[in-house]
Amino acid sequence: MEQERRGILYPERLPEFHRVPPPPALAHAVRWFWIPEWDLPEGAESRQEVLPFPACNVVVEPDGISAVGPTTRSSERVLVGRGWAVGALLLPAAVGAVVPDPASLRDAARPLAEPTLHGVIRSAMGDLRRPGATRRAIAVGALADWLRELVAVPDPGSEAALANRLAELLADPALTRVDQLPDLLHVSIRTLQRIADRSFGLSLHAMIRRRRLQEGAERLREDPALTLAALAADLGYADHAHFTRDFTAQLGVTPSRYRERALRSELR
To answer: Which Gene3D superfamilies match (predicted)?
Structure first.
């Protein structure tokens, strides 16, 4: 199980959150499964703010299943009462089978009519007589089986395989510029941008910027002594003013103000 929380802007607010790696047979299709659960007292709420990496997800909730497209900004959800979700963060090789045109689902979701799958997961997650680990394992197993039937393993030289490799590189902190990609993948920027449009629904530049901002938010939370100038340089920005503009545009708050809020959340 993986508990890394990059992209979750205020981790200390999470009631309970789990990330589960995919089984080996599904490593071509899913980066990880994710499961939040909460049971809050009457009148209480938990405000969740997220800056996710721009990718597509399949999300199962008590009222249905959705294909969720890539995001272009941070998002917020207020949790109340008792609830859960079971999600799969899709790799590019799986996107065509679930979201044929990811650009059409930017910042949006589409219902998936899969009543059998929904029934199995809802039954498992709602059975509070079972230990939490057992409920989650049943739910993840059902979603994994469904995706395994839907998504074929890509041929090594296929566009889907190249798209998965592109996703790996885009998540690497060492990659800070689009012009680094052609030498690493031995294809042109034009080809890679076409693959990005089909498999992610966003530009290469937008995805690199998002990953840098995720990393920036994480480091602001973890290292109160880190200066903005040093952080901007580490992330590949020309100066801290450029980093501050990007950060504020995406999160709606300056890096300094975000650090203050994150620290307050940890101290509560």
So the answer is: Homeodomain-like
